[in-house]
Structures are given as structure tokens and as C-alpha cells.
Specification:
This protein has 496 residues and is of the alpha/beta class. It has one domain: Rossmann fold, CATH 3.40.50.1820. It is built from 15 helices and 16 strands. The strands form three sheets. An eleven-stranded mixed beta sheet has the order 3-4-8-10-9-11-12-13-14-15-16. A hairpin with a 4-residue loop joins strand 1 and strand 2. The protein is globular. Bound molecules: 2-acetamido-2-deoxy-beta-D-glucopyranose (8 copies). The site of one 2-acetamido-2-deoxy-beta-D-glucopyranose has 3 residues, from loops.
Length: 496
């Protein structure tokens, strides 16, 4: 069964005129608000709809406000290039980008020839970057490869990516912000985008009942999606109280001349974009934005594919820790009291060879089929001290064999071994299989051991261990004692 390509196959482009001499029309999709004309990419036989707004632009008086859904209709609009990305700090320069406050858009990549009624499963990629950087148009997140693979393995799917507000634009916190109900704007953007996708994806040929969100985030279960893929779902620390956020808010207000305003928030809305941008860049360290406390137990009760990389912790760990005392101070500064810090220090002794992974034992018990993984494969040119750190699995899962978006000396598969290429093939197929069938095992490669559902009834379970030699299931009991302890004190000590 290959329900695609009928329309696409006729699009043999020759200066916009097909071989039959009939003028080709660009791909179209008619949404609630109007019709978008996308871009046909013949090399992948895909239709791209790029830069589609999913919210009113958060500019002018809508800055630092909850995102508003679209309320205007139109006839036909173009969706043929990526829109500017949200202001962020620390982006790689390996790929060109344009930043703007007007950035709440999404992109739809579909196998050519789909239309309302095709009902393909949908994967929604929500990029990471610690809530301070990165953007969906980044070449490293090129969705053409995984969509093409989905077609090749006869599990065609649609992929969507989206941008949301970052750093102070999306995650400013303070008493002022909380009392006006405008905290966590970046997450609210994501949520509104998911609602937009639910309402409109059928028009592109997607099935609104088969949406999987894929990224580094969780969501509330409002029936907006049926599955979650969480890579590196890891939040090392965030504010325990508003002391620091308030100070940062005050510093930012002062820097742009808003300190004495009777309504600082209103004043911040009136500051010219470039002035606010440079103040944020100067005042606000790039690693200091996290959502303000979200209530416990609001995880969506949908099938979950979740995992981390063997040394996931290293990328985010504070550096410059050379003594046990440094380590103790660092743990203390995240929230735990002295007694618990002592216990954590003894559970995580200074033995670099055991790595700093992240684990999720406590999060699986929500009664839906979940699949856990650990990824353990070094990319060339990754600094040795990072090990298999954060972000390393991205090129594999995206099947980005071309190295799109990477610095030329960091192209992940440049001198790839056979094992690396096979691993990328397997991982991308498993991700597709999860999106399409809610089970990663229908990948179509023989001789791969079963990836079992995570079953926590014994206190730990099996996870899939991705490595280039022999990908397989293994017991997820790595540092069980330590992670169980940290999970047990999450609420009292870390406030989450
Ligand atoms: C525009 O689209 C949004 C999102 O699908 C929808 O909620 C809204 O009702 C639409 N409004 C109009 C006027 O078409
Ligand atoms: C859309 O919403 C904005 C913000 O609330 C409002 O200013 C504008 O008048 C609305 N437009 C329509 C057509 O309702
Ligand atoms: C992915 O990269 C290829 C090659 O550069 C390009 O043709 C294609 O349009 C890109 N796809 C997306 C979704 O950006
Ligand atoms: C898809 O087509 C059906 C009828 O076949 C129609 O009811 C529905 O509104 C269409 N959906 C979209 C998003 O265009
Ligand atoms: C807030 O957290 C900081 C550490 O980030 C701590 O020093 C301070 O005592 C805390 N304040 C309150 C009121 O708990
Ligand atoms: C706020 O500014 C003061 C004075 O420059 C500085 O000492 C302090 O570290 C800043 N606080 C934050 C949270 O950035
Ligand atoms: C830490 O442990 C000591 C000895 O058990 C106890 O007296 C003290 O109350 C504990 N402190 C906290 C903050 O729990
Ligand atoms: C989990 O394992 C236990 C003990 O082996 C078994 O009784 C139970 O049925 C399993 N649950 C699932 C969902 O597979």
C-alpha cells in the first residue's frame, strides 16, 4: 500500500510547465482561515508549507502576553519559505537564520499529493535548546529525510515543526509576570500551535487523531495528541522561588528605563524590539530560563517513547567543579538541603567512568505503553569529556546523513562507519514506527531484538540500548539507587 505520489508524479517540472504542457499548480491546502500555497520539492517528492502563522504576532501590545489564536480569514497566501525565527541567544552560526518578534509559525512537510482525507499520522517536532535558543528552520532539523524514509518503508507520515518564544520573550518570570498570568508564554505558544495543528492538519492530509509530539517537552492531555517522543527530556534545575527571577526582571527593567514606570510590564511592551533584545542579551545569562513550576501529575496519559544519552548530564552540568566541595556547593545551590546533598554526594561519587546519565524510573508508571531508550554512540569531533552528550542522537533520528546544518568540521556522518549508518536507519525507522503504530518495533529490519514495553512492576524494566555494535534491549537499572533517591525528594527538595 502506497497511497501517495499520484499527484506528485505528475509534477515533472519544467519552468513550471509539465511535460504534458499543462501549467502545474503549486500544492495547496485549505485551512480554516484560508488557502496556503506551498512549495513542491521534486528531489524528495514532497510538498513543503513553510512559515504558516498559528497565532497573532506577539508584537506591540501583544508582547509578553498570552498568545492569541488567529481570527482573520484570507483568500490565498504563500507558504514557500521559512519565516523568521524567535529571538534566541546562543544559536550556532553553522546555518543562517533571521530573528524577529513576529515568529509564531509552523512548517508542514508532507509526501507529495496528499490532501484532505488522506489521514496520515503526524509527527510534530518541537525543538529544544533550553528555552533560550535554536529554531525550527535550522538545517539540523530538516524533516525531509525522515518523511522520505517514512515513504520508503511504506509508513508515510506528515511532519510539522514549530517555533515558540524563547528566553525573556517567552519565559520571563517575576511576581509582576505571575500576577498578570503571563508566565510560561513559550509553553503556551506550543500549546496553541498544537491546537492549530489539531484543527487544521486534515487539510494537509493528516489525521488529527494521530498526532505525536516529538521533542523535549511534555504536554497536558487535552486530546491534542496521542503520543509523545521525548528525547533528552531533562531539566537539570530551575528556580526554587522567585528571588532570582525577580532580580533579573528588575535588572532588565532598569536596563531599558522601565524601573520607575508605574506599570513595568506595560513599559516593557513599549520598548523598541532591538533595545530590549540587546538588553536581554547583555543582562540575562543564556542558561537561566526554565518554566515556572508546573503542577505535578499533569503529564499527558498517552504512549511515551522516552530516553536520554549515556552522558546526558554532562552538557548541562556546571563546569569548573574540581573538588567534592565544589560538587556539594553546586548540588546545594539547586535546592536540596544539606542532609540530602550529603546523600546525593555519596550516591554520585567522583568516578568519571560511570558517566552522568539521566533516568526516568519514576515517570513511567502512568499506565500507558511506554518505551525507554538509552543512546550511546559517539559522533566524531565531539569533545571527549562530553561523552555521548546532549543532542548527539538528533542526526541519527532525523536521518541527517548529509550533515545538513552542521559546522563543516562536525558533520556527523562524514567518515561514518557502516554501524553508524545502520544505527541511523534503525532509529529513524523506529521513531516513524512509533508515530504511525504507537509501537517502535514495526521498523521492517530483521534480526533486531524486540524493544519491550517499559514494565516497571519490578522497580525497573527494560530499555532499548542504541549503540553501533549491537542495538538491543537491556535492563534499565543503571544507578537505580541514586535516581530513585533523587526522584523521591523531587517535590520536597526541588519543588517539582
Ligand atoms: C482561524 O483559524 C483558527 C485556527 O484554526 C480558528 O480557531 C479560527 O476560528 C479561524 N478564524 C477565522 C475567522 O477563520
Ligand atoms: C482579532 O483579535 C485582535 C486581538 O484581540 C483584535 O484586536 C482584532 O480586532 C480581532 N480581529 C477580528 C477580525 O476579530
Ligand atoms: C532539506 O534539505 C534538502 C537539501 O538541501 C532541501 O532540498 C529540502 O528542501 C530541505 N527540507 C526542508 C523541510 O527544509
Ligand atoms: C475535509 O473534507 C471534509 C469532507 O470531505 C470536510 O467536512 C472537512 O471540513 C474538510 N476538512 C478540512 C480541514 O478541510
Ligand atoms: C530562594 O532561593 C535562593 C537560592 O536560589 C535562596 O538563597 C533563598 O533563601 C530562597 N528564598 C526563600 C524565601 O526561600
Ligand atoms: C542584577 O544586577 C546586579 C547589579 O549589576 C548584579 O549584581 C546581579 O547579579 C544581577 N542579578 C541577576 C539575577 O542577574
Ligand atoms: C539533618 O540531619 C540531622 C541529623 O540527623 C538532623 O538533626 C537535622 O534536623 C537534619 N536537618 C534537616 C534540615 O533535615
Ligand atoms: C509487567 O510485569 C508483570 C510481572 O512480570 C506482569 O504481571 C504484568 O502483566 C506486566 N505488565 C504489562 C503491562 O506488561
Amino acid at each position: 500500500m502506497l497511497p501517495l505520489g499520484f499527484l506528485g508524479a505528475t509534477l515533472v517540472l519544467c519552468h513550471g510547465v509539465s511535460s504534458l504542457g499543462i501549467r502545474d499548480s503549486p500544492p495547496r491546502a485549505t485551512l480554516k482561515n484560508g488557502t496556503y500555497e506551498g512549495l513542491h520539492v521534486s528531489s524528495y517528492n514532497q510538498d513543503l508549507f513553510l512559515g504558516i502563522p498559528y497565532a497573532q504576532p506577539p508584537v506591540g501590545d501583544l508582547r509578553l502576553r498570552n498568545p492569541l489564536s488567529l481570527n482573520e480569514s484570507f483568500d490565498v497566501k504563500q507558504a514557500v519559505e521559512y519565516a523568521p525565527s524567535c529571538y534566541g541567544y546562543g544559536n550556532s552560526d553553522a546555518w543562517p537564520y533571521v530573528l524577529s518578534e513576529d515568529c509564531l509559525t509552523l512548517n508542514v512537510i508532507r509526501p507529495a499529493g496528499q490532501q484532505n482525507g488522506s489521514k496520515l499520522p503526524v509527527a510534530v517536532w518541537i525543538h529544544g535548546g533550553g528555552y533560550v535558543m535554536d529554531y525550527s528552520a535550522n538545517g539540523v532539523y530538516n524533516l525531509s529525510f525522515i518523511v522520505q524514509k517514512s515513504v520508503e518503508i511504506q509508513k508515510p507520515m506528515i511532519a510539522v515543526s514549530l517555533d515558540y518564544r524563547l528566553s525573556a520573550w517567552g519565559f520571563l518570570a517575576s511576581d509582576e509576570i505571575l500576577s498578570h498570568g503571563v508566565a510560561n508564554l513559550g509553553l503556551k505558544d506550543q500549546y496553541l500551535a498544537l491546537r492549530f495543528i489539531k484543527e487544521n492538519i486534515a487539510a494537509f492530509g493528516g489525521d488529527p487523531e494521530k498526532i505525536t509530539i516529538w521533542g523535549e517537552t511534555y504536554g497536558r492531555d487535552d486530546g491534542l495528541f496521542r503520543g509523545v517522543i521525548a528525547e533528552s527530556a531533562f531539566e537539570p534545575s530551575h528556580a526554587n522561588n522567585l528571588t532570582l527571577p525577580n532580580e533579573r526582571y528588575a535588572n532588565l527593567s532598569a536596563a531599558v528605563g522601565c524601573s520607575d514606570a508605574s506599570d513595568t510590564l506595560d513599559c516593557l511592551r513599549k520598548v523598541p524590539t532591538d533595545v530590549l533584545d540587546s538588553a536581554i542579551a547583555k543582562i540575562v545569562p543564556t542558561t537561566s530560563f526554565y518554566p515556572v513550576l508546573l503542577a505535578q501529575g499533569t503529564f499527558a496519559k498517552v504512549p511515551l517513547l522516552i530516553g536520554s544519552n549515556s552522558d546526558e548530564g554532562t552538557t548541562f552540568s556546571p563546569s569548573g567543579i574540581n573538588t567534592d566541595e565544589d560538587f556539594t556547593q553546586s548540588v546545594l545551590s539547586d535546592g536540596p538541603d544539606e542532609n540530602n546533598t550529603a546523600i546525593i554526594s555519596s550516591l554520585y561519587p567522583d568516578i568519571p567512568s560511570v558517566g552522568i546519565p539521566v533516568s526516568y524510573h519514576a515517570w513511567y508508571n502512568h499506565g500507558v505503553p511506554s518505551y525507554a531508550f538509552q543512546f550511546d554512540s559517539l559522533l566524531p569531533n565531539s569533545p571527549a569529556y562530553l561523552g555521548t552528550g546532549h543532542f548527539q542522537e538528533i542526526a541519527y533520528v532525523f536521518y541527517n546523513i548529509e550533515g545538513e546544518g552542521y559546522e563543516s568540521d562536525q558533520v556527523p556522518f562524514k567518515d561514518a562507519t557502516e554501524g553508524m549508518l545502520k544505527l541511523a536507519d534503525l532509529m529513524s525507522r523506529m521513531w516513524i514506527s512509533f508515530v504511525v503504530d504507537q509501537d517502535p518495533n514495526n521498523h521492517g529490519i530483521s534480526d533486531i531484538p524486540e524493544w519491550p514495553v517499559y514494565n516497571n512492576s519490578l522497580g525497573y524494566a527494560s530499555e532499548f540500548y542504541f549503540n553501533t555494535e549491537s542495538p538491543r534491549a537491556q535492563l534499565d537499572n543503571y544507578r537505580l539507587e541514586g535516581t530513585t533517591f533523587i526522584n523521591a525528594i523531587q517535590e520536597t527538595q526541588y519543588g517539582r
